[in-house]
Each structure stands twice: as C-alpha cells, then as structure tokens.
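To whoever picks this up:

The nightly regression suite flagged DUF3553 domain-containing protein as changed. Nothing in the input moved, so I suspect the structure step. Input below, exactly as stored in the fixture:
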Amino acid sequence: MNEILEPGMIVRHPGAPEWGVGQVQSRIGDRITVNFTEAGKRVIDGRRVTLDIVATDAM
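Regenerated output under the current build:
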C-alpha cells in the first residue's frame, strides 16, 4: 500500500496515533519521510509499517 504514497499526501502512523497527521515529504524505495504535526520529521521503514492515508476532507 505504501507504493501509492506521493509527496503531499496526508497520512497517519497506525502505531503512533499521538504523532497526529503527517504530510509525506518523499518516498525513496521503502524509506518514507513524513512531517507529523506532533512529532516532526520522521523517516518510516515502509517494509515494517503501512501508513494510513487520511482523506483530506476528514481533516
């Protein structure tokens, strides 16, 4: 599922809801860089975590 992520998309980390929503900054292979509202910039290993896409009208 992470394969469809593109910069600008809004996501949530299913294992860290306290991070809030985040905007995808880049995806290079399995490395996904996301800027979360409550946790700042994080690099996610897409082999271990499938990020949840947030519908922009749900924000």
